[in-house]
Amino acid sequence: MNTTLETTANPLPEELAFLGERLTAFNDGDVGASERKALAVFVRDEDGAVVAGISGYTAWGWLYVQWLWVDERLRGQHMAGKMLDAAEHEAVARGCRNAWIDTFNPNAAKVYQRQGYEPFGTLANFPIGRSRIFLQKRLALA
């Protein structure tokens, strides 16, 4: 087989989808079906605009919170905690027993620790001058 190596900053969406499908098939064969399912929590204002939210997924009995954002006007009102509670509740309903999240913001790490998340690893200087902190939590079974 002759091959070429291509590096791009503009991959085609269908090529990325193909990679995802192939990796999923490999992983499913290796460790069993992930049953990956998207999970989002949104907070909306009176006009229906998103003012806070979580995006992530559940897979292999874990909740992964990929993105968590709160509008400045709502910060300091425990909105992150309320959203995490909602996401964790849904994850438990889906059969998850654990959750993980990462951040390079020290204030966010404190919020997550107040929610019961415990650090399990860091990457120094990611980004430069900060550390990326990985946290996990055992979810309460319903």
Please provide a written account of the structure.
The chain is of the alpha+beta class and 142 residues long. Helix content is 30%, strand content 34%. The protein is built from three helices and six strands. Strands 1-2-3-4-6-5 form a six-stranded mixed β-sheet, with helices on one face. A hairpin with a 2-residue loop joins strand 2 (50-59) and strand 3. The longest helix is centred in the N-terminal third of the chain and has 19 residues, at 13-31. It is globular, with a radius of gyration of 18 Å. The termini are far apart. The mean pLDDT is 96.
What spatial order of strands do you see in the largest sheet?
Answer: 1-2-3-4-6-5
Shape: globular
Mean pLDDT: 96
Radius of gyration: 18 Å
Q: Name the beta content range.
A: 25-35%
Low-confidence stretches: none
Distance between the termini: 53 Å
Q: SSE string, helix = H, strand = E?
A: HEEEHEHEE
Largest pleated sheet? 6 strands, mixed
Helix content: 25-40%
Structural class: alpha+beta
Quick structural overview:
This protein is of the alpha+beta class and about 140 residues long. The chain is about 30% helix and about 35% strand.
What keywords describe this structure?
142 residues; alpha+beta; 3 helices; 34% strand; globular
Question: What is the secondary structure topology, with strand pairs?
Answer:
Blueprint (H helix, E strand, L loop, with lengths): L12 H19 L5 E8 L5 E10 L2 E9 L8 H15 L4 E6 L2 H9 L3 E7 L6 E8 L4
Parallel strand pairs: 3-4
Antiparallel strand pairs: 1-2, 2-3, 4-6, 5-6
